[in-house]
């Protein structure tokens, strides 16, 4: 059983994907309505496909360029194999495929939800959540399937599926990082491009349709209305999916890297029932079990009564969510106790090697689950309808747009307080429990429910679209009433889902950051060195500038949309009377092209900066380890500032949105009930306009920025380091007494000098345990040194 | 000559202060006008005094509380003497006194400027800039006078005015840090409290006056109008003055600390013509010469033609500014070459001791001057009238307040790009030239022109007030025209002055941060340790939350003001007809009380967080050096995030302000000239409302936050470290050969164990230069150890 454990995650992923296929065919078998409904749904479907196809074209070019770069890297760096290119391509393809599944099912499910809502709310929930489930399991299943398959392949390819030493395993994991990088690059396109798309279409449609032409939202006469609905899918479904796909893969990868580091700290090899790789297999196993748990969680989401309201629907989702979190906690306990040595040794910086029991690793996973649950509550508090911060923004709307804006900004800013304290506490606690391996496993545990989380997230835009279709096809009001209940719940889950995505990005980046240090072999990142401090500043600046670029991109793309809609209104006769059909496809094309064009600059910023920091000083002959430390400072700056700006922008945006929505039911301002159309409401609408790019474009983009930055760092780490690839291969060889002093000669380290492509064996002289001197005794290619050490070991055994 | 050099800065400061007194009496002798003009000016003067008095009451309590805390610290920590309390009190008193001089002269000069503007523009400039000069030289003179006097006193008190060792000098400088802390605490009150005051009065006056009652700005019927004018002085004069006073003192102090560190790196003592303290005297000397240069600079500011326009006035200010920068560069060259050893040794982290020529220190000072000049240009580009970013915001105003806000936010965010690259480049370059001593001297050189900078800064609000008085006392239009020219120039200098203040705060914090590390004796701040990383996150969050609190404070205080103005309009008959006088003093009182009350929470956040981080883990028995590293991580987080948010908020606010002002002369939007009162203008007004607290309250507060955080760190550093206080007092003592191995015994270190209040002498065994072992050979009180070492040295000399 234990020896087969390496295949367990694949099996679980396969099971999850099979369940997904069953669910998918069930959803597709549902009645898709007819006439106008079907027509609109088809437009949205086709618009989404148009975006995907355009995105894939651009992606192909991008993947080819990056593949060439990676191939060069793999030739230059001995610890990076050319297979990283294959892993990269597959990572990109898997992520894109998962996004494709999600988009397709979401755009097929919306109309079926509308149709189901004609007869029953429970059925409408079942259909819409079914669509979400397909998305969630598709992403989680493909992520685990891809990552673990490549691990097994590389483990076989580089190590013959048997433990040799941590250096070889580092090569396996370094090559595996390509898969993660591929996935995150897709996320850049899907999340940033998608974010620009969705808001450009939204703002464009509103500015001309609602404001200039005076027609309601989702009116079929508006040429941009289909683009607007496509945008919901592009941004919230495909974007969120790719984001979490990337987090999921990167988290598990980072935990594996740190698991390898634990083995190194324990002397370079452990004996367990899992072929000596228990600490490396554990994160994959948690991910695998998480998929089955997600399946169970999604099964629990159902309501019975046709008269149910928001609380019942929310309750059903919560039940599924909480049960899955509890099940993850239980399985973490079982897996940790089973798979890890009872006591491990871990190196704590500045404190040396410490004994860590496996129970402490379990506690670290609990920290992760706690963060996942808490961050949602915090987000909910700062952005939820009827909560204090929202009521305050509503009050401030009465004195105009200016005070509404200030209140919204302040809310977003203050929301960083509990969120950052939570993250800081989590870093501290999980590290105190089990070092950076603990931090990475906390992230892994939190991400284990990704399938379930994404099902809940994707359900929102599906319900939103279903409502839009009901409106556009002029259904009975009861249909819209039912979809509105789902939509309202979907809005809440969208906000908490964003919180989860930030938390996952933050923890993932931390885990990657830790993995980066172990890969480069630097002994820490000392910000008292001025170049490192300078890079901390530069890193801190990048998320701010990135956000501004993303916001400006929305503005530019929206302006193009506005002009196109104006042109159609002007040039197509009968469009306003509903006798002529608008050219929906032209608007979709504009959004598509603009979003992909406008994401170039922020994308370049994300990818270019770490490369510049790594390679420009290299050209000037700077020491590689010094560069590695600088790049580490940059990564830390991006992460700290990026997490702050993500929380700030998401929560400010969410707060403005719900402050505006509060006016729909009416709010009490200075003792007077105030509704839509009031001056205060107009002020709140202004706030929402500012908040839209915050919460849907620049805010969520931060997740990608910080993860991708850390991943790029991880991939180029071996170029900078190489000294990391040290491995204790032998213990004390002989003892010598001269001049009354007892010296012990220990061949205790093989370090790989990446710059000169040679391996070095160091001899350490100790005097009663104190290191007196170190001396390099053997140098050569890695193969030569390995052979020499093996010979030495064989001689000693005699 | 050389031996008297220690008194040079005091002499220069005294000269500067004498010149200030002459200038002051000249300004006060000018015609102060009569009737209405004089009456209004008196109201403003009294309102300012009312604020100052209220502030001083609160300050006294605060100073007493902090003094008690400091007294406790000085009892617990052997390297901190109780004299730090005296230094602290004097630092607070000097800063408050400088602010007092500035406020008084500013409020006296405004009416005299109006009066002078009746006849001549050159005279109006002479009077208004004369007031600014008094402010500038008062601040610079008192800062240098106070700091250097205390240094001379402590140097005599602790070291008998003769060099002993770096440990003793550390005690001198540690005690001197009290002066800097006192000054910065006043800055907290003046800048944050003043920032809240000025915007609460401004927003309150506008909301009821302009919007509700429809009367123009600065109308004497508005009860809040005096408070508004007082606010300009409180925020822009006293706040800016205290800010720069604090930066000035802290920068010089940090440079002195790092100068002491240079001496330590050079073996614990140097031989030069300045009693062996050349590197410590240098920053004081640069500051002293800077005062005389500032006097020269201010003398150059004059125009001749009565028909001069903005460019001529700006040109006169620029001439003075550039000449003073050039003179500072020349004197830095002379002083550096004269006062520093030709070659120094400096310890670069990770690179060991390096030989640094004094020319390289000079290059570092040039870096500082370059940053000071560049940051003003960058600020000018992003916030200047007619520049591209402003024109873009103007264009975006045509589609409503929402797009105007987004454009303003994006401008502020993007402006961090060149600014941060400039700072990062400056850190890198000045460190590469001369280590952290170079960074601190770069800051010192930049700050040398503080007198001149502040004269230019203070001139703005004086001109603004002069215009207000002309308006309120209904002068001839030509008077307002002339003051408007001065005001327009003042607006530009206000923006660039803010840039200078940020740059000074940033460089000061970096220098303090470096000094902190040397005080604690930690070997760097490694953000790969999870607790340090967690604190980096927490530190990054604090500026964001601080800004939000400051913004909310403005909102709350403004609301109180609105209610008071409404009450007066309602209850005082004849107020609108101008027959009854409004109760100006009530509005002043409200602004005063509200601002001081509302600054409590952000102030507590600033002071409380570092104390919590230092002392809570201490209670739980955490290692002191680990705590010191955590606190360092926190300081870095606050600095990086604080600088970012300062630039973002100041520039966004400045950009919105000038986008609004663009409409006064008319702007071309979509081919149409658009003026005040248009829809686009209304959108721009909304942007300005959001920008007001950004640029005048939360933005400038960041300067204080980051400096005060680093200063608090510096003051508690010896509690955490103590190991820093090491000093090489003797060289090799004897050589011993045993078993054919040559051992050298070297008593090379006295380290002070702060926790146990004892000194330790360490014996180092070396084998042909390699350190083989260290051993503690002598422990006791500092006095005992000193005596023993002296005896040992005496024996060796025989």
TrEMBL record, chains A, B:
It comes from the Bacteria. HAMAP family: PPase_energized_pump. The record marks 494 as: Determinant of potassium dependence. Sodium pump that utilizes the energy of pyrophosphate hydrolysis as the driving force for Na(+) movement across the membrane. Belongs to the H(+)-translocating pyrophosphatase (TC 3.A.10) family. K(+)-stimulated subfamily. The keyword Transport applies. InterPro entries: PPase-energised_H-pump (IPR004131). It catalyses: Na(+)(in) + diphosphate + H2O = Na(+)(out) + 2 phosphate + H(+). It is a multi-pass membrane protein. Pfam families: H_PPase. It comes from Gelidibacter pelagius. It is found in: Cell membrane; Endomembrane system. PANTHER family: K(+)-INSENSITIVE PYROPHOSPHATE-ENERGIZED PROTON PUMP (PTHR31998). This is Putative K(+)-stimulated pyrophosphate-energized sodium pump. Its cofactor is Mg(2+).
